[in-house]
Specification:
This protein has helices at residues 17-28, 40-52, 67-81, 105-132, 154-173, 192-195, 200-207, 218-228; strands at 8-11, 32-37, 56-61, 86-89, 136-141, 179-186, 240-243. With 250 residues, the chain is of the alpha/beta class. The chain has one domain (8-190, 218-241): Rossmann fold. The longest helix has 28 residues, at 105-132.
């Protein structure tokens, strides 16, 4: 039997990068996958990749900073698959780069709205449905910057720290209700967003921030997200796991 056989999984930000890797892996392991993103083309491509491998998935266009989009996600999930067992709140953005005293206020609102409020709203709508269907599990994607700082990214750092705290709070609230909630802190990820926007010298410098001397692969994060949302992690909740090649050990 596959690890997520007969499970229904909802994944935000699944149109590329970590979200796509998680969606594809979950589908390979037997889950019916709800792919969500603001990028319709990317989301539909993720669905195409899943269907190509014999999996089951469909796409819902949704902005995780909007309350009604979360309600739509839940409604469409139940309408199509009749249940919800697993969620991954992954959608996020980097935002502007500037110190606190110069940081654009609209940039702060946008980053916090997607990266932190979006995770809160996700759980707010997901948890009642998980309880309705007998329990389940949630993985929230934070960052190594959920534990340490980085200059000129105050909104991102604040949001990702907030995700870790929010995850812990929700985990202890629902620990006796058959719902587990954990967070993951990836290092810098090898994605087109990074490699297509930075020169090779800068990419090498970012890679060398990790003691292992390379960037994290989205598939490596997906493997941990699979474990945490499986029965193999049945006594793990409220935890933060970094996938960072030793970055936080320095």
């Amino acid at each position: 039997m596959k690890v997520l056989d007969k499970k229904v999984a909802l994944i935000t930000g699944a149109g590329s990068g970590i979200g796509r890797a998680i969606a594809c892996l979950y589908a390979l392991e037997g889950a019916k996958v709800v792919v969500s993103d603001i990028d319709e083309q990317g989301g539909n491509e993720t669905v195409r990749l899943i269907l190509k491998e014999g999996g089951e998935a469909f796409f819902v266009l949704a902005d995780t900073s909007k309350v009604m989009d979360h309600q739509k996600l839940i409604d469409e999930t139940i309408r199509r698959y009749g249940a919800l067992h697993i969620a991954v709140n992954n959608a996020g953005i980097g935002g502007p780069l500037a110190p606190v005293g110069e940081y654009p206020l609209d940039g702060w609102d946008k980053v916090i709205g997607i990266n932190l409020t979006g995770v809160f709203l996700g759980m707010h709508f997901q948890i009642p449905k998980l309880m309705e269907f007998g329990g389940g599990s949630i993985v929230n994607i934070s960052s190594i910057l959920g534990m340490v700082a980085s200059q000129n990214s105050p909104a991102y750092v604040a949001a990702k720290h907030g995700v870790v705290g929010l995850t812990k709070s929700a985990a202890v609230e629902y620990a006796t209700k058959k719902i587990r909630i954990n967070s993951i802190g990836p290092g810098y990820i090898d994605t087109p967003l990074l490699t297509n926007t930075l020169d090779q010298e800068t990419i090498d410098a970012v890679a060398n921030l990790h003691p292992m001397g390379r960037l994290c692969q989205a598939s490596e994060v997906a493997e941990l997200a699979l474990f945490l949302n499986s029965n193999k992690a049945s006594f793990i909740t409220g935890a933060y796991y970094n996938v960072d090649g030793g970055y936080l050990a320095q």
